[in-house]
Amino acid sequence: MHKLVLAATILVGSVAIASAAEPLATEPAVPFNWTGFYAGGHAGVGWGDADYTFANDEGINFPSQNYFNWEAGDTFSHRMGGGLLGVHAGYNQQYENFVLGLEGSLSLANVGRSGIHSPFNWNDTRQDTISTRLDWLGMLTPRLGYASDRWLVFAKGGLAYGQVRSRIDTYSDAGRFDVTKTFSRPGWTIGTGVNYAWTNNIILGLDYNYVDLGSFTVSSFARDSETGEIDTRGSTHNVDTAFHAIMARVSWQFN
């Protein structure tokens, strides 16, 4: 009898030990879902080029022609650089691993360069400078991405719209004059990026954009920089701007 009880005790103990050694069954992790609205902020840097083409010829538009250049067809280019800071919002819809989205963004910008020596008039008696700057930039871009759980890589392209400021200054014995114009320009953009869902709501990202705002024409009399009076000097020229931008971003996804 005692042997039977002892054997039963050993059997029950063995089963208990074996049961304790078996790992508990766990449910598989649910992949992150990118579907939903999101909004956030971004900051980054931009760099690119501003290309000037002087189209005026003597006697066409202004009494004192070719004041800021030598002859029709003169060209000049300079580099631009600076920072951007803005906000964005959009919506994603996930289909298995593919993610379709639409995003709008608006950024304040200081991408440009000022006080560049003109190649046409720079001597002991006269000094001309050229300045160009992007003041703000908006973009509306459809996106196509591929998701792997909390990682999302995507490509995008669409509409860009920005404000570009152009200024040519001349300093001479006759005084200081400038031709300054600001234009809001439509254009296009294309880019790519990567997002990472740090939490179920906080999305970190990095993206690249190429933006081309096309060209605009400046045809204006010069202005006396001291008095504001309009002078007989003038210029007709085209300004073409295109640049690259890299943005670091953080977003909140509304689940």
In short:
The protein has 255 residues and is mainly beta. It has one helix at residues 2-21, and strands at residues 36-54, 75-95, 98-122, 126-148, 151-172, 175-197, 202-224, 230-254. An eight-stranded antiparallel β-barrel has the order 1-2-3-4-5-6-7-8.
What is this structure's SSE topology?
Blueprint: H1 2-21, E1 36-54, E2 75-95, E3 98-122, E4 126-148, E5 151-172, E6 175-197, E7 202-224, E8 230-254
Antiparallel strand pairs: 1-2, 1-8, 2-3, 3-4, 4-5, 5-6, 6-7, 7-8
Descriptive notes:
The protein is mainly β and 255 residues long. 8% of the residues lie in helices and 71% in strands. It has 1 helix and 8 strands, in the order H-E-E-E-E-E-E-E-E. It has one helix at residues 2-21, and strands at residues 36-54, 75-95, 98-122, 126-148, 151-172, 175-197, 202-224, 230-254. It has an 8-stranded antiparallel beta barrel with strand order 1-2-3-4-5-6-7-8. Strand 3 and strand 4 (126-148) form a beta hairpin. The longest helix has 20 residues, at 2-21. It is elongated. Mean pLDDT is 85; it is low at 1-22.
Spans of 5+ residues with little confidence (pLDDT < 50)? Answer: 1-22
Mean pLDDT over the residues: 85
Taking the sheet with the most strands, its summary is:
8 strands, antiparallel, barrel
Rg, Cα atoms, Å: 31 Å
Helix content: under 10%
Query: Can you write the helix and strand succession as a string?
Result: HEEEEEEEE
Summed up, the helix count is 1
Shape: elongated
